[in-house]
Amino acid sequence: MKYESSKASHNNYFPWEESAFHVYGERDREVITLMANRFIGQNPQAPYQYRLDFTSGITCDTKGWYQFDFGSLFFHGAVGEVCYGAGSLYSHSQTISQFQIQCWGPTVCWVNGEKVFHSAPSQEGLKSCCTFSIPLETGLNHFLLETEKTEIGFGFFLRNSQPQWQPSHFTAPLAERKGQAGFVCSAPVARELVDVPALVNGSFEGLSWFPKQQYEEPVSSCSLSRIFGRDSQGTAAAKSSFFHRKSGNVVIKGSSNQPLKVYINGNLSLEWSEGAFEKEMTLPGGRYEVILLCEKKAGEETGLAIEFQDESGNLPLCAGVKGYEGEWIYTGLFEEEVPPVSHFAAMDKVYPGSKGTCYWKADLPDSFVRIFAEQELYGKWTYPCGVTLYGLLKAGEYLDRPDWLQYVQEYARMTADVYDYSIYDKSVFGYPGVNTQLCWLTELDDCGSFGSFLLEANRQNPTAQARALADVIADFMKHRQRREKDMVFSRNDNTMWIDDMYMSIPFLCRYSRLSGKEEYLTEACRQALLFKQYFFMPEQNLMSHIVDLEYKKMNKIPWSRGNGWVLMALSELLLVLPTDHPDHKAIAEFFTEMAKGILPVQDENGLWHQILDDPSTYEEASSTSMFICALSRGIRLGILDGELCRESISAIYLAWEGMKKRVINRRGDLYGVCQGSGCSFSRSYYRQLGWRFNDPHGIGIAVLAGAEKLMLDEFLLHSQISQ
């Protein structure tokens, strides 16, 4: 018997005329295409951003705290003086964001000219971590912070309250540093000498701002000596580009006291030993990348000078780094083994230098080029994006959509290729600008979902980078992820969540296939059966969302998406588990019991509710999508049979039609996806969890649900199952 749907207005996401069903009816392929194309169109392929940053400025620690340690930066500051920090933060939408602050002395924060935080005496002296709300506008938001030196310290720490999910990449607000990464800060000053209202409103005149952008005198005239040190030795690489307006001659001219090679678009264009040089060549119009390889000897100046000219004169050189007006960026030094020039063309690689891993630097003190993932979703490593990309990948394979496959493969390539860089970036700046959740790596959330997608993408387009990254994730799950005495996965806050079945089992299955090691498939089975022992509620054939290990209690709340994670993870396992595997029968029985639990709580419209046994909560799209996918697989695999099979077929068709009528609109937007959940033993907590519009927890899996429904259609055409 189906639950009667609540009449509450929050179940009516849009008028009937706005529904996908009203426009497309039973044309399911067009609905699937509509959703996938809308997501790709709103999250187009975009490159990472390259910005200049300074280790002598305000850097982060590994937990995302910006370290405004003015006591160390300005140890001569007097008690009672103040320092200011200023930065701009881009927001893709108007929203309320939660920030945290810890402060030594009195601290004030203004955002967009409005005061959003003023410390109380009880909060100072690093006695507490204060959380406060900041209203962010679409576009750049301007932060200004003031703090006072006291006898016990000088400065504060600031971060987003969820740094692994919402890393806050600030940029310098000063016009002359436009595009540079990070905050700027002022030298200590008496407060009465500062025009605070003008400063709050964005006038930065009258104060000295750090980090410094000039070398201390005296300084070498040789850029390589300034960057790498006068006594250093090896081969340096330099990189820039120029635009040649039309086809014609280009002259390379300059001088060098040391051997020099000049590559244009990867081709060796000039090789010189010593002295002045000049060479003319004909080039079609267009933009050209230039790589220089110059030897440097200890204690000697290179005397390197080079320019490019055409008929109009000198061609301006551009390093392509935001916040940097210099012409060249540099990396090295290298000993005998110099990386291939093609490696220097790609900005996603780090290099084995003579003094360890190296990346690009600028000819400014303590400066480094950094990579940032700044799109709302594209290019970011998060578990919701892993779910969505997996859905697009599998639907793209089934519907033969090479454009979707190219999109997800490029996304997978980008994130895997910058992993080595992100580890390097973390070692230099504390908190990386890319792959922040992966580099956090303390829970299964941080790696399992996206790692599983990455391995699925790797099946069609194998890469060494994806394989190496898979080994890192497998090692984390095997050796560093927290477990209980029986070896079940648990969380660092002494809880267990059913979400972690999906965050581990699909990856373990795919890694077992990649590595050829059956132990990982065995581990997937073990985790599935252990999770059942902890969470299964036999009176409902559903899973509790949370177990508190300290109290040894489950919360007995069947959160909808959590149960979706369970059934989806079991279906992923059953897709690859041999029928003669010793755990197959137990896994199949677990799947069957879960099916028996979810079918009775489907509502009359075909959807499942935010809390499965509470029809007064809203109709939830991501769990409905996962139930469609999993049940379709269970039927096709022969796990569900007899009356349960027939009920499941009816439930899938009703659910997919309900999706098209109630949560997918005529533009391919998806409604009713529950926001990310925390941990609670209160039903009222789950009731108040709102839904999100076009949330990646649901989009890709809804696309896959449509594809899985089509797979079921095809299967039933050739099967003996009576409906």
Task: Describe what you observe in this structure.
This protein is α+β, with helices and mostly antiparallel strands. Helix content is 34%, strand content 24%. It is built from 21 helices and 34 strands. Strands 12, 14, 15, 17, 20, 21 and 24 form a seven-stranded antiparallel beta sheet that branches. Strands 6-5-8-3-10-11 form a six-stranded antiparallel beta sheet, with no helix packed on it. Strands 2-9-4-7 form a four-stranded antiparallel beta sheet. The two termini are 18 Å apart. 46% of the residues are buried.
Record the SSE blueprint.
Layout: H1 20-24, H2 28-42, E1 49-54, E2 66-69, H3 70-73, E3 82-91, E4 95-103, E5 107-111, E6 114-118, E7 130-136, E8 139-148, E9 155-160, E10 184-186, H4 196-200, E11 209-210, H5 223-228, E12 234-244, E13 248-256, E14 260-264, E15 267-272, E16 275-283, E17 286-296, E18 305-310, E19 313-314, E20 317-318, E21 329-334, H6 341-345, E22 351-353, E23 356-358, E24 361-362, E25 367-372, H7 383-399, H8 402-417, H9 419-429, H10 436-440, H11 448-460, H12 464-480, E26 495-497, H13 499-502, H14 505-515, H15 518-535, E27 536-537, E28 542-543, E29 546-548, E30 553-554, H16 560-576, H17 584-598, E31 608-611, E32 614-620, H18 621-636, H19 642-662, E33 673-674, H20 683-687, E34 691-692, H21 699-717
Antiparallel strand pairs: 1-25, 2-9, 3-8, 3-10, 4-7, 4-9, 5-6, 5-8, 10-11, 12-17, 12-20, 12-21, 13-16, 13-18, 14-15, 14-17, 18-19, 21-24, 22-23, 26-29, 27-28, 29-30, 31-32, 33-34
Helix pairs in contact: 2-21, 7-8, 7-11, 7-21, 8-11, 11-12, 11-14, 12-14, 14-15, 15-17, 16-17, 16-18, 18-19, 18-21, 19-21
